[in-house]
Amino acid sequence: MFPTQFAWGAGTAAYQIEGGWNKDDKGPSIWDTFCHKGGGHVFEDHSGDIACNSYELWEEDLKCILQLGLTHYRFSLAWSRLLPDGTTNHVNEKGVQYYNKVINDLLASNVLPMVTLYHFDLPQALQDQGGWKTPEIAGIFDSYARFCYETFGDRVKLWITLNEPFVCAKLGYEDGIFAPGEKQPGISAYLVGHNMLRAHARAWHSYHTLYKEKQGGAVSLALNSDWAEPLNPTSSDDIAAVKRYLAFSIDWFTWPVFVTGDYPELMRSCIEVRDKELGYQGSRLPRFSKDEPSILGTADFFSLNYYTSRKVKDEGGRPGCRMRSDQGAVGVVDPTWPVCGVSWHVVVPGHLRRLLNYIKDTCNNPAIYITENGFSQVGPVDLDDVQRCGYYKDAIQEVETAIKTDGVDVRGYFAWSLLDNFEWADGFRVRFGLFHVDFTRPERTRTIYRSGREYASIISKYKTQIKTNN
């Protein structure tokens, strides 16, 4: 049995579904620029120029939400649709009108919005000024956040400031496979992660100082993590490598926000050892200034995005200056685990429970919303997606067990995603939706998968139990 007020949701992100990339005075984002470069940055040079066309077809999305019986819907605001140059110097009223309609329609349908301020799509105008690598970005983001609180906060009670800062930092600035496509190994990722944490903290403090009392909402940031286990459970080296792997992934962001107010000691010590070996003066991992708002405690709940797991082995010393070199560990896929759609995505539902317990034990038992969890499909479209149905059933069962047996304070579960959409570097070839979207048709027809019907059935059963108990 789930808690009475448990949130049953699904999620999307602006660039992945909206389209209308240059309509109604919207400014370009870094993903617009990244995709328009072509040259293989994205699978078959796909882009989110049209995507699901949710900017014009919002009512179709709402029908999908209602068909599922969701209690909550998570979506993101396109920063450059609201503020084309990224600053409040120019407010795009058409963007404001669009998101007002989305929020008002949800509430009129008894669906609560969870709103993400930033889901990978930095305004290009800000990137041109240095983007997340500049210290000034924290203040600019705070100004954007305050604009959103002021504009929508009378109706939005669950806010996510940033989605997956780890992914933004590593894939966007270490590996170069996400926008803005920079490759500065072992340097920029740490700086970007640092500035994103500073931006989040400022936005959290602004909400609690200026809006919390009147609006009564809650603010967090969405953190992603694999679950990790030693490749050889009897190897002390592999066991130690797991600790480093987690320190350089989920702990990178949980320690500053939930644990100590600073980066994991293990992470900093590994980087400093490598700094000395490479002849760096000082540490590549920045330090938080005491003159800025405190990072510790700047989350009213824990927002978790979980998809996959890894077996981790010790790599020892490696040449070069990369995050992987710093941590001296590498995650590999166990061949006995089922691969789901794409090579990076293996599915082991029981590992979600283990990760939930890890968060409970290391982050002082926070209230947790699972804000993304899903199962991908590639190749021919299969509306009778039996494997995905089984995955959701098993994953939700693991969540329930974590609540009932382990005492983990899980408050909600959001499937990723409501719709098949633009899956970043994988374009449209990877499908996570509860509804299939026919991207070959101008009307972008939405058709429910079997997994969508079964998820709706789970939600309906939960609602019936609540009514019976009351």
Automatic annotation (TrEMBL):
Superkingdom per UniProt: Eukaryota
Keyword Zinc among UniProt keywords: no
Keyword Cell inner membrane appears in the UniProt entry: no
InterPro entries membership: GH, GH_1_N_CS, Glyco_hydro_1, Glyco_hydro_1_AS
Keyword entries, A-Z: Glycosidase, Hydrolase
Stored Pfam families: Glyco_hydro_1
Active site (catalytic residues): 372
Annotated GO MF terms: hydrolase activity, acting on glycosyl bonds
Entry similarity comment: Belongs to the glycosyl hydrolase 1 family.
Protein name: Uncharacterized protein
